[in-house]
Amino acid sequence: MVATYGIHWFRQDLRLQENPSLLSLSKKVDQIIPIYIFDLNQRIGSTSKWWLEKSLISLYDSIQKHNGKLNIFAGDPEKIISSILKNSNVKYVSWNRLYDPYSIKRDTKIKSIVTSSKIECDSHNGYLLNEPWNIKNKSGTFFKVFTPYWRHCDEILKLKDNKFKKIKINYANSKFKNEITIQDLNLTNKKDQWIKKIEKYWIPGESNAKLQLKKYISQKANNYSVGRDRPDKDLTSKLSPYLHFGEISALEVYDTVNIEKKIDPENKKKFLAELGWRDFSYNLLFHYPDMIEKPIQTKFNKFPWIKNTKNLSLWHNGKTGIPIVDAGMRQLYKTGWMHNRVRMIVGSFLTKNLLLHWKNGEEWFFDTLVDADVGSNSAGWQWISGCGADASPYFRIFNPILQGQKFDPDGDYVKEFVPELNNIPKKYIHNPWEMSMEDQKKYNFEIGTSYPAPIVDLKETRNRALSAFKTIS
Question: What is the rounded distance in angstroms from the CA atom of residue 389 to the CA atom of residue 297?
Answer without folding.
Answer: 7
